[in-house]
Fold:
Amino acid sequence: MSQVDSTPSPFTAPHLVSVLGRIGTMEVCLAQTEAEIVSAQQLRFKVFFDELGAKGSASLEQRDADRFDPVCDHLLVYDTSIIGPKHKQIVGTYRLMRSEVAHKTGGFYSASEYTIDNLVAAKPQMHFLELGRSCVLPEYRSKRTVELLWQGIWSYCRYHAIDVMFGCASFQGTVPAAHALPLSFLHHNCRATADWDVKALPSLYQPMDLVPSEAVNPKVALFAMPPLIKGYLRLGAMIGDGAVVDHDFGTTDVLIILPVSRISSRYVSHYISNAKRFD
Structure:
């Protein structure tokens, strides 16, 4: 990961309202300035490198930055009760890339691990959105922060008429066998249907069926599942074929595939009712 220009993306939708959700003193918005994007990169560095021990070549400014940042939109959660400039109030972030942007700028981040381009090419009438680089400061890892992030994502999806969300989600550590139970649960119970399937690249493919189906205790497996992955599953997400070990970030990744049509009506109603206040 190298230092890159952090000028806001020319592909960002300038007419999307600035505040996409609000709970108490916290609000979710799209980054509009270079300072906000730099702050998001610094937050990612704190979480991925300082806290979780990523070992990639981060920049000297202690920023997690790569070639995708300048062309992506950056969803940011702010705590407005923090005294200081707005870019210092950022406590959480998500990185968003639409398929039309990926086509113009060299592809998706996930394509370095999974055959996502095959799925996108097979459904040219659909608008895809890659979700990535999700992180929140430890003291803000609460239900309402997640709620705000999803209010923002849902508003963004409605504005851009997104049909499918996808992205890599991670288990901590580079030994898939250490996560044998939850990985096997995902393989046996949550695999994508044939028309949505995406496979890990052959050189990176790690099998997920490490425990026979009859030996998987669902309650134990879900308890061991990272909260982000459980959240995606609640929304109706499916899982791609095979895990991938990311040695730079010290993680074992799985691919999340979430067609908007699969999202439960109760979640759609909830996020629409909240997001309408910010149209």
Summary: The CA atoms of residues 16 and 159 lie 7 Å apart.
